[in-house]
């Protein structure tokens, strides 16, 4: 299960007392194209009705993409609608809510509830003294740091989950619109001695780093190949990785 914790303040001040919202993202079906069940909790509002995300390709996009879709479904007012549509925000011009700093962490929950591994973080900071104008710094274990350009978020009351949503969409898409679903990362194979191999360099992130780390945990290193500078791995191993790795 993934858990996304949303806090007021910066990453260095995170405690249970600064938490304002959180998201649970659990598997309904573990497969290369997986099904999830998501729930959004917001302080003052409680839990949303659990919402499914069907047929989402694993290891093919930033974890903030899956987070964005979970927030959108948690915010929906029509409980029968599962469209991943960003709810409109009317930006106020005079009186509006703002935060000087906010942050979020994506953590993987292990077999024991207290076993959490941080996979990604974001810190959202006010730009100078301009209230309601923000920049966000994203760090993810399989991707390079990404700092967004300034973006505006000026609602009538403080909405931490929606501020995170807007920051994620700016990071993913450059605008406050939901990007298209990512495609499952399955590169054209390389054949060798009548067998099919996956060229590591043709994998997109996070699949590339995730697959290499998974191989190393199994004491299996990529095989050298002149046409693949990062090596190759047997196609059956990559299939097992997509089916099992979390």
Mean of residue pLDDT? Answer: 94
Q: How many domains would you count in the coordinates?
A: 2
Structural class comes to: alpha+beta
Would you report the number of β strands? 14
What is the percentage of strand-forming residues? 35-45%
What coarse outline follows from CA principal-axis ratios? elongated
Oligomeric organization of the protein chains: single chain
- What can be said about the biggest beta sheet? 10 strands, antiparallel
Q: Segments where pLDDT lies below 50 for 5+ residues? A: none
Name the helix and strand elements from N-terminus to C-terminus, one letter apiece. Answer: EEEEEHEEEEEHEEHEEH
Helical coverage, percent range: 10-25%
- Separation, N- and C-terminal Cα atoms: 9 Å
Key features?
alpha+beta; four-stranded antiparallel β-sheet; ten-stranded antiparallel β-sheet; elongated; 246 residues
Gist?
The chain has 246 residues and is an alpha+beta fold. The chain has 4 helices and 14 strands. It folds into 2 domains: 2-173, no CATH class; 190-244, no CATH class.
Structure description:
There is one protein chain. This protein is an alpha+beta fold and 246 residues long. The chain folds into two domains: 2-173, no CATH class; 190-244, no CATH class. The chain contains four helices and 14 strands. A hairpin with a 3-residue loop joins strand 3 (33-42) and strand 4. Helix 1 (63-75) crosses helix 2. It starts with a strand and ends with a helix.
List the helices and strands and how they pair.
Blueprint: E1 2-8, E2 19-29, E3 33-42, E4 46-47, E5 51-57, H1 63-75, E6 101-109, E7 116-127, E8 130-140, E9 143-147, E10 151-152, H2 160-173, E11 190-192, E12 195-199, H3 207-217, E13 223-225, E14 228-234, H4 235-244
Antiparallel strand pairs: 1-2, 1-6, 2-3, 3-4, 3-5, 6-7, 7-8, 8-9, 8-10, 11-12, 12-14, 13-14
Helix pairs in contact: 1-2
